[in-house]
Design brief:
- By secondary structure, this protein is mainly beta.
- The protein has a domain at about 25-100: Glucose Permease (Domain IIA) (Distorted Sandwich).
- The chain contains one helix and six strands.
- It has one helix at about 40-45, and strands at about 10, 30-35, 50-55, 65-70, 75-80, 85-90.
- The strands form two sheets. A three-stranded antiparallel β-sheet has the order 1-2-3, with no helix packed on it. A three-stranded antiparallel β-sheet has the order 4-5-6, with no helix packed on it.
- The termini are far apart.
Length: about 110
Amino acid sequence: QPAQGAPQEKTPEVITPPEQGGICSPMTGEIVPLIHVADTTFASGLLGKGIAILPSVGEVRSPVAGRIASLFATLHAIGIESDDGVELLIHVGIDTVKLDGKFFSAHVNVG
């Protein structure tokens, strides 16, 4: 058992499309419990349940089959609605909104 605050497991290198109702990892890296994130909004669960991932590759993929519901102008966050109606938020980094889109590029559009 890892020490508290230590990464829990490594996500798979190959991400395959989820089965109906399933959620895959949006990126390769180490999973950290959300309560250990240095942002109280996320750590408190105010935005819902989730996990944090310390990425090992600079690429994010959709963890579900669905549609892009929102794409923040600063490109640091993406809202996704799965084909099953589950709403997900992928938020990259802490205080990344302050980067105003610098260092991010989107390969998707809303819809």
